[in-house]
Amino acid sequence: MKNSSMTMFITIITMSVMMILNSNNWINIWIGLEINMMAFIPMIYKVKNHLTSESCMMYFLIQSMGSMILLCMILITNTLMMTEMMINTIMSNILIMSMAIKMGVPPFHFWMPEVMNKMNWIKCLMLMTLQKIPLLFTMSLINPTIIMMVLIITSVIMGAMGGLNHTSLRKMMAYSSMNHMGWMMSCIIINKNLWILYMMMYIIITIPLMMWLNYYKLYYINQISMTASTLVSKMTLLINMMSMGGMPPFTGFYMKWMVIKSFTIMNMQFMIVIMIMCSLLTLFYYIRMMSPMFLMHYSMNNWMIKYYSYKFMLTIMFIVNMIMPAAMYIIM
């Protein structure tokens, strides 16, 4: 695919996201989601092989299923012979489930690790961040129901337990994204706009990590030990992983602290305990990803290190996870 085509598809995706964020009816939201899907599929198929073909087909079928449920619910709402309260409840539940299918939220998550495992890191980054923004926005327009609480619990549990059984970094990051989706949906229950702050901080943490993984073409745990060459680089990468897991006092902890504080005020201690315990499990497999760098002896020739871009990525990770939390503490 030419760079001009890639630029065009990225522009279309960005415009579709802006269209959804500024929509005032469900039909416009559905149209924006369809445009977003049809622009993202050619980006997946940039490298033509059987793996990308499979991921394109899986992504298309799942997104089409979610869009079909959304459209059917929009069209038949006015024909249901029920009270307004019953219609609102049923519509809210079905719309939440359709968004969960499109986001890959457990128990509708089985497609997401498989699709991510067949893409490069840049496409994975887009699927984990940019593609989730319009879906979370749509979910924030719906009144929270018991279905959303169930999705939050299943997301944090499956996102934590699913990553324990894999050595593929892309699958582990997919389950990590599911766990964070549970926290973002919790933000929707607390405050309709709080998930935006959580998503912004999640993107800021994820981008330098994905840039580093893409730069070295790392796809499995056993490849990580052959990258970082100095103690400073090892510690910086470890800090970034700790931030992803929500370890205080790094940036990722402040994202989860907002949710914990709000749930405590709402007397939802049961939810807090489940979410914190699952965060500890995600922290475990983040540490498992980084442990080969510290525990294995290896050597690397100086000519294998590209200093400028390497130091730039480490600097970004350091600023995001060490300086940014101090600034946030002063603001808060």
UniProtKB/TrEMBL annotation:
The chain crosses the membrane at residues 5-21, 27-45, 57-78, 90-112, 133-160, 195-215, 235-255, 267-287, 307-331. One of its GO terms (molecular function) is NADH dehydrogenase (ubiquinone) activity. InterPro entries: Complex_I_Subunit_2, NADH_UbQ_OxRdtase_chain2, ND/Mrp_TM. Coiled coil: none annotated. It is an enzyme of class 7 (translocase). Core subunit of the mitochondrial membrane respiratory chain NADH dehydrogenase (Complex I) which catalyzes electron transfer from NADH through the respiratory chain, using ubiquinone as an electron acceptor. Essential for the catalytic activity and assembly of complex I. Core subunit of the mitochondrial membrane respiratory chain NADH dehydrogenase (Complex I) that is believed to belong to the minimal assembly required for catalysis. Complex I functions in the transfer of electrons from NADH to the respiratory chain. The immediate electron acceptor for the enzyme is believed to be ubiquinone. Belongs to the complex I subunit 2 family. This is NADH-ubiquinone oxidoreductase chain 2.
